[in-house]
């Protein structure tokens, strides 16, 4: 029997994004169920979302029920659903003095963690908090099965304590009840604080 291994990201090295991270965490604690990180390619959306997952407030609130799904390679609605189900089937890595260990479960079981509802009984939600990050969501949002994908997200949100954090490039047509934040280029002062940046790399880092 094969195993599904979580694609949970490692803790990122990040500079100049403290305000954005704090704003996202504040809104995760608020009324919004779906939150979106927007920005041009390479601006740092994925890095910011990864950093949010390791913030002490988020770890304390969600614990092992933090989930990460990379959507950049999905080509169909079935791919989309399967990637999310795989993510929900894996617990977040446990951080200890010896480093980070990633847990996995058996592929043939597809049993959600305690946070999750059974996908055969979507009408019976659990109430433990969970955070699901959907990375590179524009691939889904620009597809011809966008409506079905949105319906699937609504099904997921039958879990009362689930929050969904999305990273994507464009904001066209997003639902009004999705909170969003734009990741802007760093200031020159902030960018200079990042070590190991060449002049060319610095320009890319600034988004210019």
UniProtKB/TrEMBL annotation:
- Looking at the record, the residues that make up the Novel STAND NTPase domain are 14-169
Please give the Gene3D superfamilies that the UniProt record associates with this protein.
P-loop containing nucleotide triphosphate hydrolases
Q: What is this protein called?
A: Novel STAND NTPase 1 domain-containing protein
Q: From which organism does this entry originate?
A: Collybia nuda
Supply the source organism's classification. Eukaryota, Fungi, Dikarya, Basidiomycota, Agaricomycotina
């Amino acid at each position: 029997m094969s195993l599904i291994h979580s694609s949970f990201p490692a803790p990122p090295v990040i500079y100049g994004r403290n305000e954005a991270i704090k704003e996202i965490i504040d809104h995760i604690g608020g009324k919004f169920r779906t939150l979106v990180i927007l920005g041009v390619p390479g601006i740092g959306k994925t890095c910011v979302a990864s950093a949010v997952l390791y913030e002490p407030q988020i770890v304390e609130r969600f614990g092992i029920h933090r989930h990460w799904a990379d959507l950049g390679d999905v080509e169909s609605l079935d791919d989309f659903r399967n990637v999310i189900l795989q993510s929900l089937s894996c617990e977040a890595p446990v951080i200890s003095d010896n480093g980070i260990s990633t847990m996995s479960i058996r592929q043939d079981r597809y049993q959600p963690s305690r946070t999750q509802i059974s996908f055969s009984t979507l009408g019976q939600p659990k109430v433990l908090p969970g955070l699901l990050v959907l990375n590179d969501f524009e691939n889904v949002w620009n597809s011809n099965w966008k409506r079905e994908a949105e319906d699937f997200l609504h099904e997921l949100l039958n879990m009362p304590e689930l929050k969904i954090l999305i990273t994507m490039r464009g904001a066209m047509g997003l639902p009004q009840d999705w909170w969003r934040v734009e990741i802007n280029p760093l200031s020159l002062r902030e960018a200079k604080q990042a070590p190991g940046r060449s002049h060319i790399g610095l320009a890319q880092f600034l988004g210019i």
